[in-house]
């Protein structure tokens, strides 16, 4: 079921399906809650799957010219509060993972478990920040071309050939994101702080899912964030878009995680 709520004078959109342990699914940059469509039917058989359109994405309006990860986490909290949920599992893909970490820092008592999918607790490097600046300029100059290239570049090389229909679908969904939403998210991601400490100090169960051929997040670099922690590492053989490239494996990981928490 799709719903809308009002938050700080904007419309906030989400879906809610099933009963049981509540899992909040948070999409990545240039995505929306539809990215979870293939996973929700299975997840909601024994759990409650809630998919939120983050600020400036999908059917959720933009709030300002910069959407910090804390802003997005507060919007997620608003939905959790509206649904009267006491504790939730958070699963975030890429930017959704940054939002999940911000939520875990702001509302630790509400977190039952955390799954980071193709994401990182580390802040942007200098290089990554300048890449975001370039991406903002590119999208201002040629919105459609910039988005099209961004989406294709998230898949591993071989999957760009194999998953053409999935890539086209992801591009169409990405084009639903407004220019303001894109810029505000890039600015928010660029300014986000390092939250690696949360992987070491929080007591709830945590899983990190990484793709070996992720073109965005270097696999070897990102493994280092969970050294000397009790975070479970799950490795897939493909790129940054595990919900397309490794759908069945991701589904199994999430279902097994929900059984454990």
What does the model show?
This protein has helices at about 40-45, 70-80, 95-105, 125-140, 145-150, 155-160, 165-175, 180-190, 195-200, 220-225, 240-245, 245-260, and strands at about 1-5, 10-15, 20-25, 45-50, 90-95, 110-115, 205-210, 230-235. Helix 4 (about 125-140) packs across helix 5 and helix 4 runs antiparallel to helix 8. The mean pLDDT is about 95. It contains twelve helices and eight strands. By secondary structure, the protein is an alpha/beta fold. The chain has an eight-stranded mixed sheet with strand order 1-2-4-3-5-6-7-8, with helices on both faces. It has a single domain (about 1-260), classed as 3-Layer(aba) Sandwich (Rossmann fold), CATH 3.40.50.1820. Helices cover about 45% and strands about 20% of the residues.
SSE inventory with pairings:
Elements: E1 2-7, E2 10-17, E3 21-26, H1 40-43, E4 47-52, H2 69-82, E5 88-93, H3 95-106, E6 111-117, H4 126-141, H5 143-152, H6 157-162, H7 164-174, H8 179-190, H9 196-201, E7 206-211, H10 219-223, E8 232-236, H11 242-245, H12 247-260
Parallel strand pairs: 3-4, 3-5, 5-6, 6-7, 7-8
Antiparallel strand pairs: 1-2, 2-4
């Amino acid at each position: 079921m799709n719903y809308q709520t009002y938050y700080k004078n904007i419309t906030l959109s989400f879906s809610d399906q099933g009963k049981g342990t509540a899992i909040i699914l948070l999409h990545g940059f240039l995505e929306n809650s539809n990215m979870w469509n293939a996973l929700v039917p299975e997840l909601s058989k024994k759990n409650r799957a809630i998919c939120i359109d983050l600020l400036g994405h999908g059917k959720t309006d933009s709030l300002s010219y910069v959407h910090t990860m804390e802003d997005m986490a507060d919007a997620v909290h608003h939905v959790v509060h509206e649904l009267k949920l006491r504790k939730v599992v958070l699963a975030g893909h890429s930017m959704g993972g940054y939002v999940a970490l911000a939520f875990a820092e702001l509302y630790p008592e509400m977190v039952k478990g955390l799954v980071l999918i193709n994401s990182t607790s580390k802040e942007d490097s200098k290089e990554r920040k300048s890449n975001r600046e370039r991406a903002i300029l590119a999208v201002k100059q040629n919105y459609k071309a910039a988005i099209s290239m961004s989406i294709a570049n998230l898949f591993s090389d071989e999957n760009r050939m194999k998953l053409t229909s999935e890539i086209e679908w992801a591009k169409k969904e990405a084009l639903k994101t407004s220019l303001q939403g894109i810029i505000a998210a890039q600015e928010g991601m660029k300014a986000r702080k390092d939250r690696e400490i949360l992987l070491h100090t929080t007591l709830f169960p945590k899983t990190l899912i990484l793709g070996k051929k992720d073109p965005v997040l270097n696999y070897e670099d990102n493994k280092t964030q969970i050294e000397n922690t009790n975070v479970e590492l799950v490795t897939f053989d493909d790129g940054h878009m595990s919900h397309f490239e490794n759908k069945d494996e991701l589904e199994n990981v999430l279902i097994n995680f929900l059984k454990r928490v």
